[in-house]
Amino acid sequence: MNRQLLIDKFLSILSSRSVLEEIDNSFTDANITRNRNVVPKYSGQRKSLAWEYISTLNIENDVDFQKFLKVIEIYLMRWQIEFDDWDDDEEIRRLIKIIKLTGFDYEKDLGLVNSGGAKISLTNIKELAKRNDLNYILKECERIEKEAETDPEDAITSAKAMVESSLKHILDSEGKGYKNNDGLRDLYKKVSQIMNLSPGGHNESMFKTILSGMINVINGLDEIRNEYGDAHGKSIKNYKPETRHAILAVNAAKAITEFLLSTYDHKKN
Length: 269
What we know:
This protein is an all-alpha fold. It folds into 2 domains: 2-115; 123-268, Up-down Bundle (Four Helix Bundle (Hemerythrin (Met), subunit A)). The protein has 11 helices and 2 strands; from the N terminus they run H-H-H-H-H-E-E-H-H-H-H-H-H. The protein has a two-stranded antiparallel sheet.
C-alpha cells in the first residue's frame, strides 16, 4: 500500500516539476523499459508517460522497486539543485516521509535512497539466490546486511564467503571439480574459463580492462579477508577493520557476485 502511495505522490510532484524529455531520460537511465500500449491510469501527459514505464515493473518485487527508487533519486538530486527552498518544500518533505513509510531513508548528502538507512543492500543478489535456490548465498547476504556496520570483521569474512559460494555454485552446476582448499584465485580461474572471463579472450580494450579489474578485486578480497576477517588467529599487532573497510570489501564482493550469478543465469536461460 505504501509503495503505491509513493508512486502516486511522486507522479503528483513530477507532473508540475518535469518535462516529457526528462521523464523519458530518467526512467531509461534507471534501466526501466516502456510499454506504450498500457491502459492509462493517470490523466495528464507527464503522469501518463511515467506510467508507461512504471507499469512494466512489479512494484512488490524488491529488485523492480529499487529501479523505481533510482528514478526518485535522480529527481531529488535534480530538485535539490534547482530549488533554493528545497529543505522547506512541503511537497518534497511529504515525498521523503512516504519513502520512510516504505522502509527506506533518503540520505540527502549522498543523494541515495537506502533500505532503512543501511549503507549495504544486496537485494539483487538475494533475488538471484532465491530464484536458483541458493540458500547458503542468501544466508551470507543476510549476515552481511546485518553485520556490515556493527561487526566489520564478520562482514568481511561473509563477503569473501559469498563470492566463494557463487564460484562453487557455477563449478558444481557445470560438473567441474575443485579442491576443498582452493582459494578465490583458483576458483575464479576455473570459472573464468567456463564463462570466457579471461582478459586475453577479448579484443575490446574496455572489456580487457574490466575483466582485469575483476581479477584484482578477487585478489584483493582474498588479501583483505586474510588481514581483517575473523577466520584467522590474530597477532598482537593486529589492526581491527572499521565500518568503511567492511563496506568497501562488501561492495566489491557484491559487484563480483552479482555479475557472476546474473551472467551465469543468463547463460543457462
